[in-house]
Every structure is written in C-alpha cells, then in structure tokens.
Amino acid sequence: MTDQTARAAALLAEHRESIDRLDAIIVFTLAERFKHTQAVGKLKAAHDLPPSDPAREAAQIARLTDLATEADLDPEFAKTFLAFIIQEVIKHHEQHQS
Ligand SMILES: C=C(O[C@@H]1C=C(C(=O)O)C=C[C@H]1O)C(=O)O
C-alpha cells in the first residue's frame, strides 16, 4: 500500500465514523419526533380532529425549504423527506382513530 492509498483509507475511515455518528443522531431524532407525533395522534383522536392538517404542513414545507437553502441542502430533497415522514405520521393518526 502506498502512502497515498493509506492516507485515503484513513480519511475514508474518519468520514465513515462521522457518518455513523450522524446516522445515530438521525435515528434518535426521528424516534423523538415520532414520540411527539404519536401523542398528537392520541390528542386528535380524543378530540375528533382530522389526522392531517394541510395548512400546518404548508407552513412546515415553507420553513424547511428556507432552512435547507440556508444549510446548503437540496430543498427538493428536504421537501420529499418531510413528505415521507408526514405520510407515515398521518398513517399512525388514522390508526389511532380507527
Ligand atoms: C403532527 C401533526 O399531524 C400531521 C403530521 C404532521 C407532521 O408530522 O409534522 C404535520 C401536520 C399533520 O398533517 C400535527 O397536526 O401537528
């Protein structure tokens, strides 16, 4: 192995360590978010409120688009990711109501 390939292997390992830590943050963050949305789902079911709230979602999308742009993250990706999560949350809320 040349010095250059050894250096590249060390850099790759460093990046992967960071990626693993960030993946853990994502999992814990999602778990925390779902704890709150589950509580919201129970509240909605108890008070006969609809599972989805399109006005709230529109505000979240607008906010996330700005945040993503500021963070140098593709805003379309951020929107798709949020929509995917919200779709799952609404499924949970529908289950609370049935
Ligand atoms: C969590 C809620 O329910 C739904 C899920 C949302 C979310 O996951 O952020 C946002 C709006 C609602 O469609 C809510 O109304 O706040």
UniProtKB/TrEMBL annotation:
Biological process, per Gene Ontology: chorismate metabolic process; salicylic acid biosynthetic process
Domain Chorismate mutase: 6-97
EC annotation from Swiss-Prot or TrEMBL: 5.4.99.5
PROSITE patterns hit by this protein: CHORISMATE_MUT_2
Keyword set, alphabetical order: Isomerase
Xref: InterPro entries: Chorismate_II_sf, Chorismate_mutase-related, CM_bact, CM_dom_sf, CM_II_prokaryot
Pfam families linked to this entry: CM_2
Molecular function (Gene Ontology), one example: chorismate mutase activity
Protein name, as recorded: chorismate mutase
Organism encoding this protein: Pseudoroseicyclus tamaricis
Taxonomic lineage from the root: Bacteria, Pseudomonadati, Pseudomonadota, Alphaproteobacteria, Rhodobacterales
